[in-house]
Amino acid sequence: MFQPDLLKGKRILVTGGGTGLGQSMGKRFLELGAELVICGRRAEVLEKTAEEFRQQIAGASVETHSVDVRVADAVEQMMERIWERRPLDILVNNAAGQILAQTHRLSTRAIDSVLNIVLHGSAYCTVAAGRRWIAAGDTGKVVLSILTVSSLTGAPFTVPSAMAKAGVLAMTKSLAVEWGPKGIRTCAVVPGPFPTPGAWERLMPKERGGNEELVKTIPLRRVGEHAELANLAAFLVSDGAAYINGDAVVIDGGKMLQSGGGGANTSAMLDWTDAQWDAIRPKR
Ligand code: NAP
User: To test the ligand 1 pocket, which listed residue (13, 14, 15, 21) has its Cβ within 8 A of the most ligand atoms?
Assistant: First the structure.
């Protein structure tokens, strides 16, 4: 689909790049010649992923940083260490937390946790990178944020995530205008369902009917493949997309159009009893 050197020379940070979609995007960026930096809280997960990349892709350059993006000072220190080696060209805000629950039964801690990772973490990372690019007068830089369909439509039972991602969308559109004249593009990807162990453990308890029920809500009658999302992300951060600024591209097999996005496959859950909800509460 792409020239193998599409991202040659680009230094890219993927937050939450040790697992799931962040891992798949990172792998694609490396295949296309990028220099990759991944961060997340668990150092051992990051190292394992980095080692896999080095074995799978000849000459892969992968750097890892253990960081909690909820902590502004920790993000700042990570950016300092990254810049010491070489400034970033591209930031991908991908790290996220998610809870499937009735909103009136959420603890304030649970609400804060999701908002702090997604909304605050994305803002801290974006501002830390943008400030450095602007101070240096660097141009041709990109911030790509990974959203959810719920950021466009709202969604029952994942309200803090929908709120936080909608905030990141507002940041994307606002900075497209404010930072565009400075040579920094901001854009976003809005994925539908792409199975990952992390998201499926939190969002797809067997009580929801599994993938079989889910695919009925998707016009293309299948879930997304990681390579499809990774290719879209690679295009959007590449110089080939240099005129795309402030947009959020939906990649969901048409799900949002069929059934209102985040609300789809949750309609049956509107009638669940508290006992049914208790049954799917995370045990830890
Ligand atoms: P995932 O595997 O659980 O990825 C989340 C990543 O974020 C993990 O690597 C996690 O690493 C990191 N993370 C969480 N909290 C963090 C923190 N405080 N500081 C730093 N890193 C943190 O889930 P995924 O399915 O790949 O999701 C990736 C992105 O795609 C998310 O933004 C999600 O909202 C979006 N998305 C996914 C789907 C889907 O169907 N999978 C659909 C729509 C949108 P640690 O736990 O080690 O910190």
Answer: 21
0.85 exceeded by pTM: yes
pLDDT of 147 = 98
Lowest mean pLDDT among 1-5, 7-11, 116-120, 122-126: 1-5
Residue 205 lies in a domain: no
Output the CA 131–ligand 1 centroid distance in Å: 25
**Full domain range(s) for residue 231:** 11-191+224-251
The closest alpha carbon to 217, from 165, 252, 166, 190, belongs to: 252
Question: Residue 262: what pLDDT?
Answer: 53
What CATH number corresponds to the domain at position 126? 3.40.50.720
Is residue 33 one of the residues assigned to a domain? yes
Identify the residue whose C-alpha is closest to ligand 1 atom 24.
20
| Ligand 1 neighbourhood includes 233 CB (under 6 angstroms) | no
Q: Does the C-beta of 191 come closer than 6 Å to ligand 1?
A: yes
What is the reported pLDDT for 205?
Answer: 78
Phi first, then psi: what are they for 261, rounded to 5°? 60, -120
Give residue-wise pLDDT tens across range 30-49. Answer: 999 999 999 999 999 999 99
> Helix (H, G, I), strand (E, B), or coil: what is residue 149?
coil
pLDDT tens-digit readout, 228-240: 999 999 999 999 9
Q: Is residue 284 a part of any domain in this protein?
A: no
**CB-CB contact of 194 with 220 (8 Å):** no
Count of the separate structural domains present in the chain = 1
Give the C-alpha separation, 188 to 179, whole Å.
Answer: 15
**116 and 164 Cβ atoms separated by less than 8 Å:** no
